[in-house]
Amino acid sequence: MSTTERPTRSVWPQLEPLLSQVQRPARYVGGEDNAVVTDHADADSAWLLLYPDTYEVGQPNQGVQILYEVLNERESTVAERAFTPWHDLDALLRAHGVPLFSLEQHLPARAFDVLAFSVATELGATNLLSCLDLAGVPLRADQRDDDDPVVLIGGHVAFNPEPLAPFADVVAPGDGEEFVLEVDRVITRWRRAREAGQPWPRAELLAALARVEGAYVPGLYVPRYGPEPATGGMAPLRETAPIRNGLPTAIPKRTVSDLDDWPYPKHTLVPLTETVHERYSVEIFRGCTRGCRFCQAGMITRPVRERSKETITEMVEHGLATTGFEEVGLLSLSSSDHSEIQELATDLVKRYEGTATSLSLPSTRVDAFNVELADELAREGRRTGLTFAPEGGTDRMRAVINKMVAEEDLLRTAETAFAGGWRQLKLYFMIGLPTETDEDVLGVADLGRKVVEIGRRYGKKNRVTLSVGGFVPKPHTPFQWAAQDPPEELRRKVGLLKQRVAGERNLKLSYADPEPGVVEGLLARGDRRVAEVIQRAYELGARFDGWSECFSLERWQQAIDEVGLDRDWYVTRERGRDEVLPWDHIDAGLDPHWLWEDWQDAQRGRALEDCRWMPCYDCGVCIGLDLEHQTGHLPDGRA
Amino acid sequence: MTLDRSAVDGRLAGDVGTADRVRVRYAKTGRLRFVSAIDLSRVWERALRKAGLPIAYSEGFTPHPKVSFPDALPLGYASTGEYAELGFAEPITIGPAMRALNDAFAGGCEVLDARGVLPGERRLSKWLGRALWCLSYPPEADRAALTAAAEAVLAADRWPVPRERKGEVTEVDLRAPLVDLAVSDEDAPRVAALLDASEPPLRPTEVHAGLAAALSTTTAPHTDHSAAAGSTLPKPRLISRTAQGAPADGGLREALSGEHLAVTAAFDATREELRLDRRDPTGA
C-alpha cells in the first residue's frame, strides 16, 4: 500500500456505537482539560505518543506528558495520545475494522508521521505489538513501506532495545526533550518531500534519523553470534555492529543538562476517569547517585540534575492553577536527597495550608529525616501509612546491594515514626538477590517482627506490611551479570518467610507472583533472537502481561519452545566478565570496568558511598557527558 | 427552554444574588456522556478548585468537597437536565461564580441555571419526581409508524416490556410510569417521553423497546409480539434527559426555574445539544 495520503477522517462515528459495549468507555473519549487539539491541516508533522498499557496506567506517565507539551508547543507540530485498548475494545475494533485511534481527535494511527512509544517496563512489549497491529502498521520494521509512520521507542527499555529491535525504526535511550525536537525536524523534511510528490525511500529516512544524536536505528546494526556451544545453550553474541562505515559503534544516551530550562509539565492533562496517580507531578531532580546496585533507573539517569526550588515552586503554583488537582507529587528517585528539600516542603505546606491540597513525596530513604518530612507533609491530614524500602533483610545483604542503611538506624526510624503517631509501616524487600542465603531471606521476616514489636509499644493496632518481590537483574547495572532465581526457588524462599511470620499479629506478608519475573528477565537481558518469542507470544494472545489476571507463563513458555530458545540461558545464567552483552552498543555513560569492579565489590559485601558528598569513584558518567552533578550539596563534606 | 449559549449566560448574569448553598441545573453532553457518575463528581471538584471558588469541605480525616448529586445519569446518555447542590465556605455571587465554573470545565459539562437555596426549602431530590427524555432516531426510522406506535402505547392500560437484569429476563410495565409521549415532525424523528420516577427506574431504552414492539404489531399485526421488536425500528442515535422536575398537569415543574414543561419541550432542548454531540473536530 503506497499512498502519500494520510487518513484524515475521525473514527468517532464507528467507535461511538462500540463504547456502550465496553468497560470504562471514558478511557477512549479524550476531551480532558489541557488536552491539545490542533488541526492537522496546519501541521508539518504529526506525532502519536503511545503508552503500551491502559489509559489509567499510562496517562499519569510523566515522560509522555512532558513530550506531549514540548512537541505541541512547536507551532507546526501536532502531538496526540493513544493507549492500548483493553481486551473488550481490542476485539470490537478488530471485528469492525476500526483502527487504533488518537484520543484528541480520534484519528487513525496511520494519520500520524511518528508512532512514539514510551515503554517503561519489559512487560509492555506485547501491548506495543498490539498497538502496531491495530494501527495497521506492519509489525516488523523491514516490512514497512516508504510512507508508513516511523515507529520510535523510548523509555527505560531503550537501554536494551534488542528484544524489540525488529519492531522499531528508531530507539531513543535517555532524556527525550531535546531529542524529539531534533527528530521532528527530520520528520518535517520527510513529510514535505512526500507531500511534494518526491517521497524519500525508507532507507533514506532511516539514514537521516540515524544522524540525530542518540538515535539507534536497529536496522542499521546487525548482531553476530559465535558457534553454538557443544555443551548446549545458545550461541554467544560476538558483537552488535553497524552495517556500514559512518555509523557510531555505540549510541550515546541523551541527557538534558539543566532541568530549569525544561520546566515541564506546565499544563498536565486532567483525566476524566480515575487513573493510578491523580496529581500534579513535578520532578525535583533527575538521576541518582545512591548507587543501589540493582537499580537500573538510578544507573541510567545519572548524573544528578536538581531543579531549583524557585522553578519547582513556580511549577507547582501554575500546575495546580491550570488543573484543579488536589495533590502535588514531588518526584525523583530519592526525593529527600534534594539539597533544599526541607525548605521546599515547609514552604509548600505553608503556602497550601487550608486549601485541602496534599503533598506527596514518593521514593524516600529510610531515615529519621524522612519521618520528619512526612510529619511536615501530613501536618493537616491523618498519619496512616509510611513506606520505606530497605530492600534487603540483613546488614550483609544491604551491603551487597549497596542500600546503605544499618538495622539499628532502620529500627530507630521505625520508632520515630510510630512515636510520631504513624499507624502503619510498609517495608519493601527483594528476594533472589546475588549471594543471598536463607539467613538473608529470613532476615526480612525477623526485621519485620522487630519493627512490629516496636509498633506495638505505641499502639495495639499498629501494623507492619512486608512487601516482597523477586529480583530481576537489569542491563547497565552492576548486577547485569548476576543469575536470576528461578520461580521455584523464589517460591521456596517465600515459603520460608511465611513460616517465620506465621501467627505474628499485625505483621502482614505480601508477595508478588514470581512467574512474570521470568519474562521480565528474558526481555530485560535478551538479545535480538528474543524478538521472535515476543512476536510468537503476541500471536498466541499475550497482552497486558503486567496485569496478573492476564499473564500466562505457559503461553510464553510455548512461544519460547516454538522459537527454540533456551530460557535458562537467558534468565538464570550468571554472565562472565568477557561476555559480549546485547546492550553493549548502547552507551549509558557508565564505564564497564567500573560496573564490573562494583559487581566484584558487591560479591565481597563491600558498600560504596554516595558521590554527591563523597569523592568521585569514576563511574564514568560525568566525564563522558562533560557534566557534573548539579546539586546544592558539595562533595567531600564541604557543605 | 433552549440551550442557546447567550441565553445561558443571560440567565446566569441575571439577578440571582449571593448564597452559600447553590442549586444548579447543568448539561452533560458530548464525550462526557461516557464518564461515570463517580468520575463526574471528580470533574466537578477539580473545576471548582480551578475556578478558585471557595467550596466547603466536610469535617473529618478525609475532607470531601460539599458537592452533591441527587441522582446518577446512566453511562452513555446525554443530558441538559442534571442537577447538583454546591456548598460554599462563604457566600458567593452566583452569576460570576457560575460563569467562572463554566470556563473551568473542559467541555461537555456546563451550568445552565443556578440559584441560592432558600431556608427550609425541600430537598433537591424531592423535586426530581418526573423526567423528560428525548430519543433521537436516525432518518431510516419511519415517522408515521413511530407516531402510530406511540399512540398505541398511550392508548393501552398496560404495556409490558422485557427487562434484563443479571442475565435474567423479567417483564416490567412501561405504561405505569409513562406520563406522555410525543413524536417530532422531522425527517429524523425524535420521541419525547415523560417518565415518573419508579424503583427500579424505567430506562429510556425500555421506552424504545416498547415502541419497537408496538411498531412491529401495528405495521405487521401477524408477527410475534416480541421477536420482531427492534428489527423494524432502528436504535436511537442518542438518548438525552432534557429536564427534571415535580409532576404537574401532565407535564413537569422544572426543579430550578419552576417553569411548566410539557412533553414537547424536549424537542426544543435537544436541538443544540445534538449539534454539539455530532460535531467532529476534524471537520469530517
How do you describe this structure in short?
Chain A has 639 residues and is an alpha/beta fold.
The radius of gyration of chain B is 20 Å
Query: What is the name of the CATH superfamily of the largest domain in chain A?
Result: tm_1862 like domain
Q: Which chains share the greatest interface? A: A-B, 40 and 34 residues
| CATH topology-level fold name of the largest domain in chain A | pyruvate-formate lyase- activating enzyme
Order of helix and strand elements from N to C terminus of chain B: HEHEEHEEHEEEEHEEEH
How many strand units of chain B? Answer: 12
* Tally of individual helices of chain A: 21
User: What general form of chain B does the structure show?
Assistant: elongated
Helix fraction of chain A by DSSP (H/I, runs of at least 4): 25-40%
Q: What is the CA–CA distance across the termini of chain B?
A: 30 Å
Q: Uncertain segments of chain A of ≥5 residues (pLDDT<50)?
A: none
Question: How would you portray this structure in words?
Answer:
Chain A contains 21 helices and 18 strands. Chain A has 639 residues and is of the alpha/beta class. Chain A has two domains: 214 residues, no CATH class; 284 residues, pyruvate-formate lyase- activating enzyme. In chain A, strand 15, helix 14 and strand 16 form a beta-alpha-beta unit. In chain A, helix 1 packs across helix 4 and helix 14 runs parallel beside helix 15. The longest helix of chain A is centred in the last third of the chain and has 21 residues. In chain A, 51% of the residues are buried. By secondary structure, chain B is α+β, with helices and mostly antiparallel strands. Chain B folds into two domains: 123 residues, Pseudouridine synthase I, catalytic domain, N-terminal subdomain (Alpha-Beta Plaits, 2-Layer Sandwich); 149 residues. In chain B, strands 1, 2, 3, 4, 5, 8, 9, 10, 11 and 12 form a ten-stranded mixed β-sheet that branches. In chain B, strand 10 and strand 11 form a beta hairpin. The N terminus and C terminus of chain B are likely disordered.
